[in-house]
């Protein structure tokens, strides 16, 4: 996840997606960076205004994205959370010091991501919304589906396989 997020070394994001963060006055954002970004992203306007995801080299695939995170200058909350006192801090630090490691692990993760396959045919049912459904005779719920109570209703959040 950390390596893949490094894709944010290029590209931009729209104001409405980072507005909360830059106006939060939180401790996980550099005050100067927040103030600069506020200029291009007003509180009540400019939803579509763009800012670079990597403020240093927005058009180069490099490791500045990780260096920014260490300085609390990640644009999106989902970027900064990778360096916020948690278990991924050490990976961010490592990538910020070792660009070739970042690049090779990014490539590896991209290949893995390309191998993710959706369930098709009889392999399962993907439910778009949380639904209640009655237990049907001859149908077993997979272990992914927690039971609600004894009323005969289960919560469908995963796959249902026929016996
Ligand atoms: C935690 C997972 C991720 C989250 C929450 C996330 C979120 C976002 C958001 C909110 C934007 C801005 C979109 C906009 O303003 O319209 C963005 C842009 C972008 N993301 Fe991600 N992203 C994630 C993972 C990835 C991954 C895995 C890749 C590629 C491997 C990626 C590549 C990009 C690129 C290149 C842009 C810039 C697009 C542009 O400038 O047109 N992101 N992402």
TrEMBL record:
Binds 2 calcium ions per subunit. Binds 1 heme b (iron(II)-protoporphyrin IX) group per subunit. Its cofactor is Ca(2+); heme b. Keywords: Calcium, Disulfide bond, Heme, Iron, Metal-binding, Oxidoreductase, Peroxidase. It catalyses: 2 a phenolic donor + H2O2 = 2 a phenolic radical donor + 2 H2O. Heme b binds at residue 8. It is an enzyme of class 1 (oxidoreductase). Residues 1-128 form the Plant heme peroxidase family profile domain. GO terms for biological process: response to oxidative stress. InterPro entries: Haem_peroxidase, Haem_peroxidase_sf, Peroxidase_pln. Coiled coil: none annotated. This is peroxidase. It comes from Lactuca saligna (Willowleaf lettuce).
């Amino acid at each position: 996840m950390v390596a893949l997020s490094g894709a944010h070394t290029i590209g931009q994001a729209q104001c409405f997606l980072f507005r909360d963060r830059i106006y939060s006055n939180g401790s996980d954002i550099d005050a100067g960076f927040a103030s600069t970004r506020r200029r291009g992203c007003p509180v009540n306007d400019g939803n579509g205004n763009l800012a670079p995801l990597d403020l240093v080299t927005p058009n180069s695939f490099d490791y500045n994205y990780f260096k920014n995170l260490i300085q609390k200058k990640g644009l999106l909350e989902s970027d900064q959370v990778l360096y916020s006192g948690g278990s991924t801090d050490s990976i961010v630090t490592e990538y910020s010091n070792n660009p070739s490691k970042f690049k090779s692990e990014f490539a590896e993760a991209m290949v893995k991501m390309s191998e993710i396959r959706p369930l098709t045919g009889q392999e399962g049912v993907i439910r778009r919304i949380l639904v209640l459904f009655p237990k049907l005779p001859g149908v077993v719920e997979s272990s992914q589906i927690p039971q609600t109570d004894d009323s005969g209703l289960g919560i469908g959040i995963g796959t249902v396989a026929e016996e």
